[in-house]
Amino acid sequence: MTYHPKSDFMRVMIERGFLADCTDYQGLDEALSKGVVPGYIGFDATAKSLHVGSLIQIMMLRWLQKTGHKPITLMGGGTTKVGDPSFRADERPLLTPAQIDDNIAGIKQVFAKYVRYDDSPTGALMLNNDEWLDDLNYLDFLRDIGRHFSVNRMLSFESVKSRLDREQSLSFLEFNYMILQAYDFLELNRRYGCLLQMGGSDQWGNIVNGIDLTRRVLDHEVYGLTSPLLTTSDGKKMGKTADGAVWLNADMRSPYEFWQFWRNTTDADVGRFLKLYTEMDIGECERLGALGGSEINAAKIVLANAVTALCHGAEAAAAAEATAREVFERGGVGDDLPTVTLSAADLGDGVSIVQLFVKSGLAKSGKDAKRLIAENGARLDDAPLTDAGLMIDAAALSSPIKLSAGKKRHALVKLDV
């Protein structure tokens, strides 16, 4: 990247590694230099929380506001009814309006931690595209909007082409998605003066469509900017782990488990993740990322604390670090570990250790738990667990027991008294 930006926002995007592509670097930079630029990212409400895979976009909105501009968090109440086909092998299951509303309520909790919602010029807006999509008249929409879309061009977009090349079905419902997303940009520009759409690089085709439509219908100049699709240095998709997605809501992934995810970052990713997911000075990010040996572990704790403090608060980050130290360094039973509480009725005459590994989330299934035990990966109160037939009764739970899967994943089991 040889372009030297004038605006703080573009400088941050380039320096910290957020920028994959932009429809017009210079034009956007000029607009950002002249005044407050409203910019949006759309989030479909397919679950009750966003996960770490969306955090790069959330941080972009945070930086947009910190550099003097107006972030718009657009909830896809309308588009979630259709489902984004981009780079998917199959159609998304359709959700009911009630499920979508429930998911939006959960997702809203996350945004308030990263951006400031108020009536000031740079105060964030929380919008829902249901506002304009739900009442569309189909024939009017086809005549006024559909005529601007070339099917030949839509078929050439990589997200659609990859599905067709694999001879996988693409429903007409899904094919409409890119038209609806383009229409979002048009409406946001018309209603709120929005000049910028951001998203992951898999959204490039959808973003370009929205820019073209806004120019054709309103003759307004708008811009698109994408971030790289992140994978970890070992090739895994960002935000996915062996035990599922790393959710941002505390009721779906505890702050301690969230902290642990970042603490377990591979050495090669530390510097890059510090730049993307924290607000630490660039020089300090690079210094910490360049550490080697045992020193890189200290950098991982800095990363875990900074990211957890943004998402769950400084107290939760400190508690997670204290629990980790107690568990790893002193072999203790940390207060903040994921906990399974059993009632006397649950316990009955006893419960198998295999069931407890599944209930605690340390194993996905009984088969998975038995394999973990057979491969010497399971521990009970820090001692190797070799008997997959072990039964745990009330006497064994007179004090909490600690289960471990490998060196880094732990849970407590206790009796409700």
Question: Can you give a write-up of this model?
Answer:
- A hairpin with a 2-residue loop joins β11 and β12 (383-384).
- The chain is globular, with a radius of gyration of 24 Å.
- The chain has helices spanning 8-15, 25-34, 55-66, 97-114, 130-133, 138-144, 151-156, 158-165, 172-175, 177-192, 204-218, 255-263, 270-277, 282-289, 295-312, 314-329, 344-347, 353-359, 366-374; strands at residues 21-22, 38-43, 70-75, 125-128, 196-200, 223-227, 240-241, 244-245, 339-342, 351-352, 378-380, 383-384, 391-392, 401-405, 409-415.
- It is of the alpha/beta class.
- The chain folds into 3 domains: 8-227, HUPs (Rossmann fold); 254-329, Tyrosyl-Transfer RNA Synthetase (Orthogonal Bundle), CATH 1.10.240.10; 339-415, Structural Genomics Hypothetical 15.5 Kd Protein In mrcA-pckA Intergenic Region, Chain A (Roll), CATH 3.10.290.
- The relative contact order is 0.10.
- The chain has a 6-stranded mixed β-sheet with strand order 1-6-5-2-3-4, sandwiched between helices. It has a 5-stranded mixed β-sheet with strand order 9-15-14-11-12.
- The protein has 19 helices and 15 strands.
- Helices cover 45% and strands 14% of the residues.
- One of its GO terms (cellular component) is cytosol.
